[in-house]
Design brief:
single chain; about 160 residues; about 0% strand; rod-shaped; cell membrane; membrane; coiled coil
């Protein structure tokens, strides 16, 4: 009996003891449990990845909608600004036209008043000159006759 024989017997007893204690089954169960756990983790990771892709697609869709809405708001603001600019330009032109018309009307009125003032001054000057001439050349009878004629003319015009 050699040491090799005892080593062989020890090895066989070790394997029998392992078989008796059902160590291979326990190892298989442990490996199966670990494989199931890994499989579940992979399935969970796959599910999470699909959910993340779905969320990414949804956020990209929302981003595109937000960009489209922002573009629409900018376009509406540009249209409104153009309309306000056109309206302001039109109101400014109308204001300038009204101011020009008012200025022209005031100028015409001032011209008319100036012409009337010149005429009144000319009439007053002519009357004064006529009075001086008549006073020098006319006697009392002619003056009375002229006065009566002027009063009669005024009465005729007033009636």
């Amino acid at each position: 009996m050699d040491a090799t024989f005892f080593a062989l017997v020890g090895l066989v007893l070790f394997f029998v003891l392992l078989a008796f204690l059902k160590v291979p089954g326990m190892m298989a169960k442990g490996l199966d449990a670990r494989a199931d756990k890994i499989r579940d983790e992979l399935a969970e990771a796959k599910r999470l990845r699909e959910e993340a892709q779905h969320l990414l697609a949804e956020y990209q869709r929302k981003r595109k909608e937000a960009e489209a809405e922002a573009a629409a708001i900018v376009a509406a603001a540009e249209r409104e600004a153009a309309a306000l600019t056109a309206e302001a330009k039109q109101k400014t032109e109308e204001f300038v036209a009204r101011r020009n018309a008012l200025s022209e009307q005031k100028i015409k009125q001032a011209e008319s008043e100036a012409v009337n003032a010149v005429r009144a001054a000319a009439v007053d000057l002519a009357i004064a000159a006529t009075e001086k001439v008549l006073a020098k050349k006319a006697d009392a009878a002619v003056q009375q006759q002229l006065f009566s004629a002027a009063v009669g003319e005024v009465k005729a015009r007033l009636n």
